Amino acid sequence: MPQAITLTKSQIKQVVEVIKSCSRYPSRDISMLLLTHLCGLRIGEVATLKIEGVMDATGKVLDEITLSAQVTKNNQARKVMLPRKMQCHLQEHINEMSRIPSHGYLFSTQKQSHFTPNTASQHLKRLYQRAGIAGATSHSGRRTWLTTLSQKGVSVFVLAEMAGHRNLQNTMRYVTVNDEMKRNAAELI
């Protein structure tokens, strides 16, 4: 199976615009999408997020969340930093909820059950297809996130820690080297 593609900023914006114009639940869908692109979460991790895990007692979205070992791929708990932009999207999503669902999950399907990792993955893939982006999957966000951070000069050691990888080789497989990265490197001389 080929690797998921990395997206450009304009492609991400394109998907968000399509969601805004076509989705019945735009704040939910944008939040799910951006958790993969801005925080590097796997879609299975997104599907397992509970409301109580992302907000404080006053109803304000936290600036960092902790993923328990049970929900991560390598069975190792990790802390995830939420950029301000992500906090705003999550806050909007939570504010738009008419009530807290009895299942307690952050994201609900239209039938009010929580997303499974598989249904969430299929859902993101449909959103990418609707936006006309071929080759994008639920893993594209994670690849894009790691590539973007690498392009901005973040150390592979920090990337591995943030991604929850035990092995640097895993992290390096995610990063797509592009012309801009090579140009930036050439200008360091």
Description:
The chain is mainly α and 189 residues long. It folds into two domains: 9-141, hpI Integrase, Chain A (Orthogonal Bundle), CATH 1.10.443; 142-186. Helix content is 52%, strand content 4%. It contains ten helices and two strands; from the N terminus they run H-H-H-H-E-E-H-H-H-H-H-H. It has helices at 9-22, 26-38, 43-47, 51-54, 84-96, 117-130, 140-151, 156-163, 168-174, 179-186, and strands at residues 64-67, 78-81. It is globular.
Produce a short descriptive summary.
With 189 residues, the protein is mainly α. The protein has helices at 9-22, 26-38, 43-47, 51-54, 84-96, 117-130, 140-151, 156-163, 168-174, 179-186; strands at 64-67, 78-81. The protein is globular.
Please tag this protein with its features.
2 strands, hpI Integrase, Chain A, globular, mainly alpha, 189 residues, two-stranded antiparallel sheet
How large, in whole angstroms, is the Cα Rg? 17 Å
CATH class of the largest domain: Mainly Alpha
User: What's the overall geometry?
Assistant: globular
Mean pLDDT: 91
Element order: H for helix, E for strand: HHHHEEHHHHHH
**What does the main sheet amount to?**
2 strands, antiparallel
* Approximate helicity band: 40-55%
Write the CATH architecture name of the largest domain: Orthogonal Bundle
The counted number of beta strands is 2
CATH fold description of the largest domain:
hpI Integrase, Chain A
Taking pLDDT < 50 over at least 5 consecutive residues as the criterion, the unreliable ranges are: none
Quick one: CATH superfamily of the largest domain?
Intergrase catalytic core
Please give the alpha-carbon distance between the first and last residues: 38 Å
How many structural domains can be distinguished in the coordinates?
Answer: 2
